[in-house]
Amino acid sequence: MTDRTNCQEGRRIALLGAPIDMGASQRGTLMGPAALRTAGLATLLEGLGLTVEDHGDLSIAGIADRADDPPARANHYREIQRWTGALSRRGYEIARSGAIPIFLGGDHSLSMGSVNAMARHWQECGRELFVLWLDAHADYNTPATTITANMHGMSAAFLCGEPGLEGLLGEEPRASIAPDRLELFGTRSIDRLERDLMRTRRIRVADMREIDEFGVAVLIRRFVERVKERDGVLHVSFDVDFLDPCVAPGVGTTVPGGATYREAHLIMELLHDSGLVRSVDIVELNPFLDERGRTARTAVELIGSLFGQQITDRTTPSNAIAPGE
Q1: Is 79 an annotated catalytic residue?
Q2: Which of 152, 235, 265, 272 is catalytic?
Q3: Which one-letter DSSP state was computed for residue 68?
Q4: Which three-class secondary structure state does DSSP give residue 127?
Q5: Which of 69, 232, 252, 272 has the smallest number of CB atoms closer than 10 Å to its CB?
Q6: Spatial separation of the C-alpha atoms in residues 239 and 227, rounded to whole Å
Q7: How far is C-alpha 62 from the geometric centre of its chain's CA atoms?
Q8: Which of 183, 263, 284, 301 is flagged as catalytic?
Q9: Can you give the three-state secondary structure of 172-219, one letter per residue?
Q10: Is 265 a catalytic residue?
Q11: 196 is catalytic
Q12: Which residue in 173, 168, 152, 155 sits closest to 66, CA to CA?
């Protein structure tokens, strides 16, 4: 059982890089952790009064392949199996230390390890883990439903305990969450069989139409209240393709019609106000597709809002000198 002192809110942030890109169809996200660090993530968080520990990038060198049979439709299963077990193990250790982990990706397949780690930790603390999935894609495929066989599209399904990838964690304990603790937000690309499975499981989806009709504030507050009613804690899995491509071009799977800069910052500020966030993923940043680091800087700014920076506090070249000064 986890020491209850490690289940309390802290002011320590632990950064852990996961340079993984074989879960996606387009390579390059393995440089995401370096780009986020270069964009000043640690400096920004320290400026908010947080203690930041950078644990560097996780490595799977020397981890042997397991003897289980890989699924028929799961690309690069062996490599992702090693990553998932290593991330689950290391993330759990960090969570038990009392720090708030921020997992720097890497493609979204890393969440199969990071969320498992956090679900296991909070289960031992006697609290339910909820997951907010900020993503253009549902990522609720399984080997049986997938069109592409790319495993970054199976991560949300895996964390909810869907069948097909039972051996992915190896000897690491699997700590799935119930489907009613997953909230997909900003979704605008869902495969047909994936949609059918999500309807069967009653997965909650705030798609872009619902966001346009009700606004992000109403929908985020509704979700936050649901988490609070069950004394839950929150993991935010932030895929940068959640943002509109004009805001974040540095991703390999852009989908038009995403969140605006202002919507995204409001979401992060509301999540900060909730006091529920205990872990974060930042995934699918591909620096090779970015425009002079613009997407990396935007992602870092959004994480700043998630941890307390107010958008009105920022100085930009256009407002650095007010008229008449």
Answers
A1: no
A2: 152
A3: S
A4: coil
A5: 69
A6: 21
A7: 26
A8: 284
A9: CCCCCCCHHHEEEEEECECCHHHHHHHHHHCCEEEEHHHHHHHCHHHH
A10: no
A11: no
A12: 168
